Amino acid sequence: MPDKLIKALGYNDQIRVYVVDATNMVKTAQEKHGTWSAATAALGRAMVGTTLLGTTLKGDEKLTVRIDGKGPVGYILVDSNGKGETKGYIKNPQVSLPLNEQGKIDVKGAVGTDGMLTVSKDLNMKRPFVGQVPLISGELGEDFTYYMANSEQVPSAIGLSVLVNPDETVKAAGGFMMQVLPDAEDETIAKVEEAITNLPLMSKLMDEGETPEQILDRLVTDRSARILEAIPVSFKCNCSKERFKDAIIALGKKEIQEMIEEDHGADAMCHFCRTTYQFDEEELNELKEETDMP
Ligand code: ZN
After folding, report:
1. Residues 186-212: pLDDT tens digits?
2. Residue 243 — pLDDT band, cuts 50, 70, 90?
3. 246: CA distance to ligand 1 center in Å?
4. Is the CB of residue 42 less than 8 Å from the CB of residue 111?
5. pTM score, two decimals?
6. CA-CA distance, 71 to 73, in Å (whole number)?
């Protein structure tokens, strides 16, 4: 089944709800980066969280989330946009750790808590919007929640969940975001809190075959959920040989000449999807002619 995100309103339109099944997206990321369990869960949660934030944007707007908590996985970088296209990178993919006290993958231990979560939004304006909060948990769901409340002033609850198989492949991944709209009653907020407390581990529900629609009904317990939109989400990288050409041109004549003399060509790898683009001597010579840099 392809990945899907649903946008809905609930509790008589007092709460906005997003639910996403991102199993294939995180599966693809795990395969491309060869991540081990703790890195898979950290990267996967970051990708699900960024996708939830991304789909609040318009189609051609995009955002980048950088998480750096000085833990063993190093920094995590995730790009997403209003179309649900997400790509992710983790500095050290081969990290696995003993399970935490709750018997779960130790995402906090992998990410660390000595650092920041930074969101940079490109809203097609002159400058990007940048918001930053300290990592308060390292488990990432709470960190995204804290970001929404403090940087965007939208009281929210964000849950992120990744289930990893013993052979390191991804079993299920998904998440939800509930936002309190300005006219919400206290009674409604109490119901939301109760629903979230009672929600079983989301990736487990999805592994058992529950759809985002069914999980939506678990989150909106008064049966007032109203789906506004369903959009596909996926791992998608927008790199191309053209883009790498520009990057090589920017290096300047001297460096390109060195690549020609020493390596007789160049391999450029995209950090996000690990696609390698090869440039032979002839192509490098052409790029050398195009550069204005010494
Ligand atoms: Zn790429």
Report:
1. 999 999 999 999 999 999 999 999 999
2. very high
3. 15
4. yes
5. 0.94
6. 6
